[in-house]
Specification:
The structure holds two protein chains of two kinds.
Chain A: H1 3-24, H2 26-47, H3 57-87, H4 89-94, H5 101-128, H6 137-164, H7 167-179, H8 195-203, H9 206-218, H10 224-250
Chain B: E1 5-16, E2 19-30, E3 34-38, H1 45-52, E4 60-65, E5 68-69, H2 74-78, E6 81-84, H3 96-106, H4 111-124, H5 140-151, E7 158-162, H6 170-185, E8 189-194, H7 197-203, E9 206-211, E10 214-219, H8 221-225, E11 231-236, H9 240-254, E12 261-264, E13 269-274, H10 277-290, E14 297-301, H11 305-319
Parallel strand pairs in B: 3-8, 3-9, 6-7, 7-8
Antiparallel strand pairs in B: 1-2, 1-4, 4-5, 9-10, 11-13, 11-14, 12-13
Helix pairs in contact in B: 3-4, 5-6, 9-10
The chains are: A mainly alpha, B alpha/beta.
Chain lengths: 253, 320
């Protein structure tokens, strides 16, 4: 077996392990869906009449909700990584003839699959509530690719957090991902916010990614925002990936 | 004669934040033997295991497993060893069976073979009834047995057991002991750490005592027992008057060796230190009956590893 196929075989076993864990802890999937679905209903039915943004509010809010759901779902990786480190099972893997990083690869691939699945469910709910995307095949593909990049970026950041924090602290951290989208263009336009908050809202990753996703899904022109969104995802993802690799390796001091 | 070394450690050092956890450790474990590293909490046992199993880097000195350097040839060393550490290294979200097949797959056994191997180990370790339950529902003893079974999915050349029976009930402890004996028969080298002297006495071909990061004694159980003064013969008495009379008689009988006689006024016992218990019993009983009193009990007390351990660690404390 070549080194690559060996790595893939080991990582495949790790992904399988993570997926079994996911199916055993259905509550965490339900929660990561409940929050955005609940917010979807609340925004469309409760605030939808008051917040006018031209066209159906569900169309405006949906891209942001997709990202909120993906960010929250990805952040669960921090909890499972932290649990793994604490349990000692990672130490067993490290004494076996396998590359230790396959453990992390297992978490990341499993998180990606899990989040693509929850995104599809959320999208289904939104369509039932009247969400009508205006995407071409090309822009739909761009939307999926951007969502994927966003999930990967947040998953790697969460992996890093999981390596640094206790399971309890990691689980507390996940609530930040629920809060951040509010201070972005996900639900209301930043122009309506106080000026001191506008600066933050316009320059945090949720805003460009939301804007780009909105353009891809609703037929607008993403323009430069698309590239800014990609840059954020690549930058955050790389930071998480490199950080995780360094911390994971450094544990053997 | 085969003198192949399974584990060789020379002048190994490790410190954490300036405090020495291991100071110039030298050890050698012949292939196929059972070695016990004995020491109290905080002696450095787990640190040494972590270094030998490639989890931790030493500050200096060398350590080899199967002739391979654990620092420079870590990947090759991992092909030879399995570890069952104190912190149970099992996946709590999986069932016992899933844990075992996962390890089988990681060893590239292939699906069917991983499943049949898991099945055999579940039966060997008395976990068959709980095989398809999540590990988080297992008792401490079951987790430890599963942990050990996971270390044996592939037969290791060297098996490290870090305090394998700490906190276990007698049944689980026996299961672990039997597994160690069985593996040793198959030629697996076993390196175990323990706080229990009885465990080292029962299982190990050779023993090293680790205290405060230093090896304070090394040898077979019998060799270590010879490090402390001989055993005792203990004579017990019912009546305080008998006790007093007997003490005088025994002291007179022992003559020059009288300072080897100790009494316990509370329990009315007289202890005679000796290497020849039979001779002491014969002569003391004879002189007691000549003097008109009898002992109500006679006990031979052999030195235990506990005596060795306490003597060795106390000696080191006195030196500091």
């Amino acid at each position: 077996m070549t080194a690559v196929s060996l790595y893939v075989a080991h990582a495949g076993t790790m992904v399988r392990r993570e997926l079994i864990r996911t199916l055993r802890t259905v509550d965490s999937i339900v929660i990561s869906l409940m929050v955005p679905v609940g917010i979807l209903f609340a925004f469309v039915w409760v605030f939808g009449g008051a917040i006018q943004s031209g066209g159906g509010y569900v169309n405006y809010v949906m891209p942001g909700l997709l990202l909120m759901c993906a960010a929250f779902g990805s952040s669960q990786t921090a909890v499972s990584v932290a649990q793994d480190i604490k349990s000692g099972v990672v130490d067993r893997f490290r004494t076996m003839p396998i590359a230790g990083s396959t453990v992390l690869a297992g978490h990341v691939v499993a998180s990606t699959l899990r989040n693509l699945a929850t995104s599809a469910v959320l999208l289904g709910c939104a369509v039932l509530l009247g969400f009508s995307p205006q995407a071409t095949w090309g822009s739909a593909l761009a939307a999926v690719a951007l969502l994927l990049a966003f999930i990967l970026a947040f998953t790697w950041l969460s992996t890093l957090a999981g390596l640094l924090l206790s399971p309890e602290a990691a689980s507390g951290l996940t609530s930040i991902t629920i809060f951040l989208p509010y201070v972005s263009s996900a639900f209301v336009r930043p122009e309506t916010m106080p000026s001191w908050l506008q600066g933050f809202a316009e320059h945090q990753p949720f805003t460009p990614v939301t804007e780009a996703l909105r353009a891809f899904l609703l037929g607008g022109d993403a323009g430069a925002t698309g590239w800014i969104a990609v840059a954020w995802c690549v930058g955050l993802g790389l930071a998480g990936w490199v950080g995780s690799a360094v911390i994971f390796r450094g544990r053997r001091s | 004669m085969k003198t192949e070394l399974a584990i060789g450690v020379s002048r190994l050092r490790k410190s954490f934040g300036g405090k020495a956890a291991l100071a110039d450790i030298d050890l050698s474990v012949p292939a196929g033997s059972v070695f016990a590293l004995l020491g109290p909490n905080g002696a450095g046992k787990s640190t040494l295991v972590a270094i030998l199993t490639t989890l931790l880097r030493a500050d200096g000195g060398t350590a080899t497993v199967g002739g391979l350097d654990v620092g420079r040839q870590a990947a090759a060393v991992r092909n030879l060893l399995s570890v069952t550490s104190q912190a149970s290294a099992v996946d709590e979200f999986l069932t016992g069976r899933e844990n075992l097949t996962m390890i089988g797959r990681l060893h590239l056994l292939g699906g069917a073979k991983a499943i049949s191997r898991a099945d055999k180990l579940l039966r060997d370790f008395d976990l068959h009834g709980a095989a398809d339950r999540k590990v988080s529902t297992y008792s401490g003893g079951m987790v430890r047995r599963l942990d050990l079974a996971m270390s044996l999915v592939r037969r290791p050349e060297v098996l490290f057991l870090d305090e394998p029976t700490t906190g276990l009930d007698p049944r689980s402890r026996l299961a672990v002991w039997n597994a160690v004996r069985g593996l040793s028969k198959q030629g697996v080298t076993v390196f175990l750490t323990t706080q229990y002297l009885e465990e080292a006495d029962q299982l190990a071909d050779s023993i090293a005592v680790l205290n405060d990061g230093r090896i304070v004694a090394q040898g077979t159980a019998d060799e270590l027992k010879r490090l402390v003064p001989a055993g005792h013969v203990e004579f017990g008495f019912q009546d305080p008057q008998d006790f007093g009379k007997a003490l005088t008689l025994i002291r007179a009988e022992r003559g020059n060796a009288g300072n080897n006689v100790n009494k316990d006024d509370e329990f009315l016992t007289v202890r005679v230190a000796t290497t020849d218990s039979a001779a002491v019993i014969t002569s003391v009983v004879a002189s007691l009956s000549a003097g008109g009193c009898t002992a109500s009990s006679i006990a031979i007390i052999k030195p235990t590893l506990d005596d060795v351990f306490l003597a060795l660690t106390a000696k080191q404390e006195a030196k500091q």
